[in-house]
Structures are given as structure tokens and as C-alpha cells.
């Protein structure tokens, strides 16, 4: 893209550079730092103002990073990449590229420094003897969607209280992840977090599993009785997943636990008190179940005091690509691979409707990491991904100007796509933006993928 196509001013350009997660800094011919972006703060703890105007030698001598890269680049006048360590302990992969003038002298040096995340992970894995999972925050919820960010903010607020929370949302949207997130953000975080899937425990077992039983409560009961799961969560959080599947008789007992923190074990007479917080989740329409008398109204209202809704993935499409990268990273680590994914593949993933939500995306990426070659391409994607919104394209002679334009557009996009096979190259070929190219490819070239 030529500069004349850029529709923004210098301030916007500076803003763009400041949002780069890589550090960018530029030196003049005297090794004086003439530009640096905001990433210098996270690498060295220095503000731009502390860096600009200094020479790189000043900063190396003050111990901000080591080793120095610049004397060598002025000598060799060729790009160099080295590993550096900063005063804050960040490990960087730093690449410097000299720009030479007509006399073959170094005019400026453009340097980028990127944190070596994967390197850190490998090291941590070696040091922790395989327990590398601790390095990553397992409770992080990835989202770029404003509504979901508000959900997280709200969840943080209610986490600090002791109130019961009902999480609603389709299957696979991350309800369990949110429940765990609330627990980790609450002052119960050092207590236990226990998930009970109400759909998975048979109805007749659920009562004794949850509430425990006294000695001789029923045939085959253990002689000494048994503590229930609810008691084992003392001081922590109980997550009742699929609460809509809890049998009606048990719902009354659960209501008492929520309201009074009290219950009576099966076969017992003495009430027990517990200090637990309850989070419940469902993908069912509880209000409808109340109407049909399959869910207790009083329990519904008690649960529904604080409710949180997880959005389906199709309503937060901006999360698809960050989640894809996250899962690719995760499974590359698990399977000790280094798979990459093509832009076109990402385009198709972003276009798909994901009826199984985040879980479906996660499962697909795991499968692709296991089964694809070094680069995951369109040919690795399952058929179903392309059938969403599929259009039947038939060739007919145009009966109006609009139709003729449409047909010509389609032909151009299809011809370009057959040759170029990527939205970036089609964009360059047809002189349109990549977003526009991706949209047109989706519209006109679906059959070329199959
Ligand atoms: N925002 C997210 N960031 C990272 N991983 C996520 C996110 N949301 C969901 N996941 C992952 O997606 C999978 C499905 O999430 P989860 O089990 O929480 O969904 P759910 O809504 O509870 O599903 P169900 O109703 O079927 O129990 C999990 O493996 C979870 O780790």
C-alpha cells in the first residue's frame, strides 16, 4: 500500500506504533535514540522521555539491557538479531536493520524487540519438571468483545460478595470458565472449587453424593456414613453445572442450602451448617421450565438474583481469531509442535457460525494441530466450515447493469483467487483492502475451497 493511500495523520501513526506489542526503536547515525514506542515501558520500566535523546551505550552501561547490538551493526552494516536480557528480566529477541545512505554509511537503525514467550515457557517447563501449566494463567478469559468485557467486570464485582450467581448461555460458551474466574477473584480463592454436573450424576445418587448420609441410612450404605460433596467445599465455591437437570425433590433441599446454608444428610435428623458460595449454570430456559413445573419457582428466583449471560461465539466474532491463536499456542505446547495457520484459514474460521461455541473451536484446533502438516491450511478444514452461508452461483446473462457489474466483480475475484489463493494477495492484485477481499472471497469463491 502506498503512503498516499493512508488516510491518517502522524498522531494516528504514533498511536498505531504504540499499540504494537513489539518494541520498536530507532537510532540515528550517532547511536542516539530518536524514536521509541510505548513497549519500552514493559521491557525496561522506562518512559519514552527517559529514553529519547540518550545513546544506546548510556543505557547499556546503566544495565538496562545486555548484550549491546549496536557497535556491531555500525561495523557490519547488515541486519543482526540477538537474544537480550533486560533489567526487568524480560528476554527479548532483538533484530536491528541498518538503513544506509548513498555513501554506504549507516543513517538510521530500526530495531524491533519481541519477548521470547515460548522460550520462557520451555525454560519454565524444564525447571518445573513438566509442570509448565502453572506458567500460564489457566483462569484467563480471552475476549476482545465489549459486552464480554463488561461481563468480566461485572463478574469481578460480584466475586467480592457472597451472593449466589446464575450463569446463563449456550453450551461451550465458557460458563464453567467464568465460574472458576469468579472463584479465583473472590476471597474464597484459597478454598476449594468443586464442579458438580447435575446432568451427569444419576438422580437417585445425587442426594447422597451432595448431602452425604448417616450410618445405616440405606441398604449398602457404609457403616460409618459418608460426608457429602457440599461439606467438602467448606470455605470455597460449589459450581452446580446444568442446574436445570437437578431432580425436583433435590431442588427444595438445595434451596435451603442457598438460603440458610443448612442441610440434613440422608437418614439424619441433625442439621449441618456449611460456609459455601454457590454458582449455578444452565443452557436451558429456566423460566420456561418453571412454567412447565419442571423447575421450582422459589429456587429459580433465589438463583436469578444475580445472573450473568455468556454470549455465543457468533455474537462476538472478534474473539474467534484471538481464541484460535490461544488454542494453537496451547496445543503446540501440549503436542510439542510448532504449527502455523494461514490467513485464509483464519478468514474461514472467522466467518463460520460455531454452533458448539468456544468448545467446538478448541476441539477443532486440537484436531488440526494433531493431523495437519507444519502449516494448517484451508485443505485441512472440515467441510462443514465452508457450508455456512454457502451460495449457489449460477452463470446467467445479466439482465440489468447492476447484475452485469455483479457478474464482472465475481469473475474478477474468482480469477484472482484461483491464482493468488490468499486474501492478502487478492487485495493487492485487485487494489482493495484485505477485509474487502476476504469478504468477496467468502461471497464468491466458496466452491473453490472444496
Ligand atoms: N474466553 C475463553 N478463553 C479461553 N478458553 C475458553 C474461553 N471460553 C471457553 N473456553 C474453553 O472452551 C471450553 C468450553 O468452555 P466451558 O466448559 O466453560 O463451557 P460451558 O458453557 O460451561 O459449556 P457446557 O454448558 O457444555 O458445560 C473449555 O475448554 C474452556 O477452557
TrEMBL record:
Keywords: ATP-binding, Nucleotide-binding, Transcription, Transcription regulation. Residues 141-370 form the Sigma-54 factor interaction domain. This is PAS domain S-box protein. InterPro entries: AAA+_ATPase, AAA_lid_NorR, P-loop_NTPase, PAS, PAS-like_dom_sf, PAS_fold, Sigma_54_int, Sigma_54_int_dom_ATP-bd_1. CDD domains: AAA, PAS. GO terms for molecular function: ATP binding. GO terms for biological process: regulation of DNA-templated transcription. Pfam families: AAA_lid_14, PAS, Sigma54_activat. Residues 9-57 form the PAS domain. It comes from Siminovitchia acidinfaciens. NCBIfam families: sensory_box.
Amino acid at each position: 500500500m502506498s503512503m498516499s493511500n493512508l488516510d491518517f495523520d502522524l498522531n494516528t501513526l504514533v498511536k498505531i506504533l504504540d499499540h504494537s506489542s513489539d518494541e520498536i526503536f530507532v537510532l540515528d547515525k550517532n547511536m542516539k535514540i530518536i524514536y521509541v514506542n510505548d513497549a519500552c515501558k514493559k521491557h525496561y520500566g522506562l518512559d519514552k522521555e527517559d529514553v529519547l535523546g540518550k545513546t544506546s551505550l548510556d543505557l547499556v552501561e546503566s544495565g538496562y539491557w545486555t548484550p549491546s547490538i549496536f557497535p556491531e551493526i555500525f561495523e557490519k552494516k547488515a541486519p543482526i538479531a540477538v537474544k537480550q536480557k533486560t533489567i526487568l528480566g524480560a528476554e527479548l529477541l532483538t533484530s536491528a536493520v541498518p538503513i544506509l545512505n548513498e555513501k554506504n554509511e549507516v543513517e538510521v537503525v530500526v530495531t524491533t524487540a519481541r519477548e521470547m514467550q515460548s522460550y520462557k515457557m520451555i525454560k519454565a517447563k524444564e525447571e518445573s519438571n513438566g509442570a509448565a501449566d502453572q506458567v500460564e494463567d489457566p483462569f484467563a478469559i480471552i475476549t476482545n468483545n465489549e459486552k464480554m468485557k463488561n461481563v468480566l467486570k461485572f463478574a469481578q464485582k460480584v466475586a467480592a460478595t457472597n451472593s449466589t450467581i446464575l450463569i446463563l448461555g449456550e453450551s461451550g460458551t465458557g460458563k464453567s470458565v467464568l465460574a472458576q474466574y469468579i472463584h479465583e477473584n473472590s476471597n474464597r480463592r484459597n478454598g476449594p472449587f468443586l464442579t458438580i454436573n447435575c446432568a451427569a450424576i444419576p438422580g437417585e445418587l445425587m442426594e447422597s453424593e451432595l448431602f452425604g448420609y448417616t450410618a445405616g441410612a440405606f441398604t449398602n450404605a457404609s457403616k460409618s456414613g459418608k460426608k457429602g460433596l457440599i461439606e467438602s467445599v467448606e470455605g470455597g465455591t460449589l459450581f452446580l453445572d446444568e442446574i436445570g437437570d437437578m431432580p425436583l425433590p433435590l431442588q427444595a433441599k438445595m434451596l435451603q442450602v442457598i438460603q440458610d446454608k443448612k442441610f440434613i444428610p440422608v437418614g439424619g435428623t441433625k442439621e449441618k451448617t456449611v460456609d459455601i458460595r454457590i454458582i449455578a449454570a444452565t443452557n436451558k430456559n429456566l423460566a420456561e421450565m418453571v412454567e412447565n413445573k419442571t423447575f421450582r419457582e422459589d429456587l429459580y428466583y433465589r438463583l436469578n438474583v444475580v445472573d450473568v449471560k455468556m454470549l455465543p461465539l457468533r455474537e462476538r466474532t472478534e474473539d474467534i481469531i484471538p481464541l484460535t491463536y490461544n488454542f494453537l499456542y496451547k496445543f503446540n505446547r501440549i503436542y510439542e509442535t510448532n504449527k502455523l495457520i494461514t490467513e485464509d484459514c483464519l478468514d474461514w474460521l472467522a466467518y463460520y457460525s460455531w454452533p458448539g461455541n468456544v468448545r467446538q473451536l478448541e476441539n477443532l484446533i486440537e484436531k488440526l494441530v494433531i493431523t495437519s502438516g507444519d502449516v494448517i491450511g484451508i485443505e485441512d478444514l472440515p467441510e462443514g466450515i465452508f457450508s455456512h452461508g454457502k451460495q449457489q452461483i449460477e452463470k446467467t446473462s445479466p439482465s440489468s447493469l447492476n447484475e452485469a457489474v455483479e457478474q464482472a466483480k465475481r469473475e474478477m475475484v474468482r480469477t484472482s483467487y484461483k491464482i493468488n489463493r490468499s486474501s492478502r494477495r487478492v487485495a493487492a492484485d485487485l487494489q482493495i483492502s484485505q477485509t474487502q477481499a476476504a469478504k468477496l472471497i467468502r461471497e464468491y469463491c466458496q466452491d473453490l475451497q472444496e
